[in-house]
Amino acid sequence: MELFGIKTDLVRPGDDLAEAILRGMERAGLRLAEGDVLVVAESAVATAEGGVVDLSHVTPGDRACELAERYDKDAREMELIIRSSDRIIGGIPGVVLTIKDGFLYPNGGIDHSNAPPGHVVLFPRDPGRSAAEVRKRLEEASGKRIGVIVGDSRTHPLRLGCVGVALACDGVVPVEDARGQRDLFGRPLLITRKAVADNLVSAAEVVMGEGDEGIPAVIIRGAPVRLADDGEDMKIPNIPPEECMYIGSLRCGPHPYQGGYDRLIEEATEAIERAYAPYSGFRVGAALLARGGKIYSAANVENASSGAAICAERAAIAKAVSEGEREFEALAVVADSQEPVSPCGICRQNLIEFGDDIKVIMANTRGDAEIATAGELLPRGFKRDHFMD
Ligand code: THU
């Protein structure tokens, strides 16, 4: 495998990035060959499309001010982070960890590096579209079939130093499935997928550097990768946070709900109609999915003696358990509320009785939904093994 860094003029807002890369190649006497993969730095993509923001033009809102104070950050930058991410998971002084379109980004993907003083560079608007655009232009200019990856750099948990990650690919398959191949001892590899695109970005970053090298793109020749067929899905696959080893073990849910339990949410929504809530008027529906596949739905049942009210979640648990069920996969709870409804403490206690891993989908009738495990909602809850051998 060979790598060729492409030195370009300083990329500025409004520049034509493909043109700048072609000019850089021309100057260095570089030509594309069939099957080459071009890695382009996301900061160059974002800068060229005009994603450079003067912080003095940003007015932070209340939430940005509060979070900036908590995480010791510039409030204007925090405002941009809130706007550009789906959720802020948490943070440490100086950096917040965010989720955007199912992936983790520090500070919502907003960067200080390679930005003029007092400015930041936003996350590229649509890295997939940019990869496709650069590929089209370079293929037209060279007459060769190539792959393009928009790359970024990131640290791994507990590791010092950045490695490459692909934000988007065009013309190249980002993750190859190695399951079914054999290890050195002939055993089949069960869960191994090769993050080919990430590995190529890492290789490119060895050449690119992170600072003032002025190399926003690298040609990789002879990489043993599979170029994508026309129409093939080149989306970079993600895994839900609760199934991710790092995020799942940190128990830092709720996360945005990304599908998988739509039917359960529907049944919980239908159950709202059966609520008996003449006192609060707050009608809640819940649906509990037993491991065997059966769904038990219920609604809240209030009482003239207010403390005797039963929440929808507990009603569903009682209904299922009294039908003989003991093992559950997921519970959905829905109400016509501003935010997704969140189970009360007693319901959380009732749920962890049957397992910390039960998924809880919290939703409202407006279509907002979040997911967490029962254990995330009630960390260190009281369990039978605290008093039974
Ligand atoms: N309620 C539920 O059914 N589930 C929840 O997660 C929150 C609260 C009910 C109990 C009561 O009937 C009403 O909402 C107002 O507290």
TrEMBL record:
InterPro entries reported for this sequence: APOBEC/CMP_deaminase_Zn-bd, CMP_dCMP_dom, Cyt_deam_tetra, Cytidine_deaminase-like, F420-0_g-glutamyl_ligase, F420-0_gamma-glut_ligase-dom
Which parts of the sequence belong to the CMP/dCMP-type deaminase domain?
259-385
Domain of life according to the entry: Archaea
For the protein in the UniProt heading, the enzyme class is hydrolase
| GO MF annotations in UniProt | coenzyme F420-0:L-glutamate ligase activity
Recorded catalytic activity of this chain's protein: cytidine + H2O + H(+) = uridine + NH4(+)
**Record keywords, A-Z:** GTP-binding, Hydrolase, Ligase, Magnesium, Manganese, Metal-binding, Nucleotide-binding, Potassium, Zinc
List its EC numbers: 3.5.4.5
Functionally, this protein is described as follows: This enzyme scavenges exogenous and endogenous cytidine and 2'-deoxycytidine for UMP synthesis.
Its recorded name reads cytidine deaminase
What organism does this protein naturally occur in? Candidatus Methanocrinis alkalitolerans
Recall the taxonomic lineage recorded for the source organism: Archaea, Methanobacteriati, Methanobacteriota, Stenosarchaea group, Methanomicrobia
